[in-house]
């Protein structure tokens, strides 16, 4: 099997595997929905006693046997080879899930080059009468039926959910999103097609970018008016959530 050209390539690959898009996009929402600061207690316990040991075990087994996820379980216990297939299937599902989100981000990046941001006003063809623009205004009447320009841009322009009648009728093809998704999968393919020789170079960007983004968001968020009150509201512990067994989605 191919070897990493540099130890730093392997280290950055491990870091990129541990910190990814979910830390930027998913974790803040999950933390807020499950008790704010109280959520950090079960999260830390699971990370120390579950996540980190399993992560280290996976690295140790891979380095020792130098095989993939499927054949490695034949060396450990042949009856457990189904675990390897399950890992590959989960990886396939995650790639569909995350690459779609990255395609949305690419679409937003493309849309941001317009002179007026399309999610900053209610004067677009996809907006509805319920759209309420609050940018640069002090007295804004907000009701339960009000929708922000950003929300309507995402739901009605990007996803076009108004053209869908449900799971039985998902609507037509959004060619701009399809093109973005095709571009993302193409980049992923050429990042992996020569194994660690190419992925070892790509991780220099993919492993460091989340930290750069998190640092930018931290600085930007900390300099906004009322930032401290927002942090206190976000992390205020809701101890009752520790007794709840519901799964938030």
From TrEMBL:
<feature type="transmembrane region" description="Helical">
    <location>
        <begin position="82"/>
        <end position="110"/>
    </location>
</feature>
<keyword id="KW-0769">Symport</keyword>
<keyword id="KW-0915">Sodium</keyword>
<keyword id="KW-0813">Transport</keyword>
<dbReference type="GO" id="GO:0098793">
    <property type="term" value="C:presynapse"/>
</dbReference>
<dbReference type="GO" id="GO:0006865">
    <property type="term" value="P:amino acid transport"/>
</dbReference>
<dbReference type="GO" id="GO:0046872">
    <property type="term" value="F:metal ion binding"/>
</dbReference>
<dbReference type="GO" id="GO:0005335">
    <property type="term" value="F:serotonin:sodium:chloride symporter activity"/>
</dbReference>
<keyword id="KW-0479">Metal-binding</keyword>
<comment type="similarity">
    <text>Belongs to the sodium:neurotransmitter symporter (SNF) (TC 2.A.22) family.</text>
</comment>
<feature type="transmembrane region" description="Helical">
    <location>
        <begin position="36"/>
        <end position="61"/>
    </location>
</feature>
<dbReference type="InterPro" id="IPR000175">
    <property type="entry name" value="Na/ntran_symport"/>
</dbReference>
<dbReference type="Pfam" id="PF00209">
    <property type="entry name" value="SNF"/>
</dbReference>
<feature type="binding site">
    <location>
        <position position="19"/>
    </location>
    <ligand>
        <name>Na(+)</name>
    </ligand>
</feature>
<protein>
    <recommendedName>
        <fullName>Transporter</fullName>
    </recommendedName>
</protein>
<feature type="transmembrane region" description="Helical">
    <location>
        <begin position="173"/>
        <end position="190"/>
    </location>
</feature>
<feature type="transmembrane region" description="Helical">
    <location>
        <begin position="202"/>
        <end position="222"/>
    </location>
</feature>
<keyword id="KW-1015">Disulfide bond</keyword>
<keyword id="KW-0472">Membrane</keyword>
<feature type="binding site">
    <location>
        <position position="16"/>
    </location>
    <ligand>
        <name>Na(+)</name>
    </ligand>
</feature>
<keyword id="KW-1133">Transmembrane helix</keyword>
<dbReference type="InterPro" id="IPR037272">
    <property type="entry name" value="SNS_sf"/>
</dbReference>
<dbReference type="GO" id="GO:0005886">
    <property type="term" value="C:plasma membrane"/>
</dbReference>
<keyword id="KW-0812">Transmembrane</keyword>
<feature type="binding site">
    <location>
        <position position="23"/>
    </location>
    <ligand>
        <name>Na(+)</name>
    </ligand>
</feature>
<dbReference type="GO" id="GO:0043005">
    <property type="term" value="C:neuron projection"/>
</dbReference>
<feature type="disulfide bond">
    <location>
        <begin position="122"/>
        <end position="131"/>
    </location>
</feature>
<feature type="binding site">
    <location>
        <position position="18"/>
    </location>
    <ligand>
        <name>Na(+)</name>
    </ligand>
</feature>
<dbReference type="GO" id="GO:0051378">
    <property type="term" value="F:serotonin binding"/>
</dbReference>
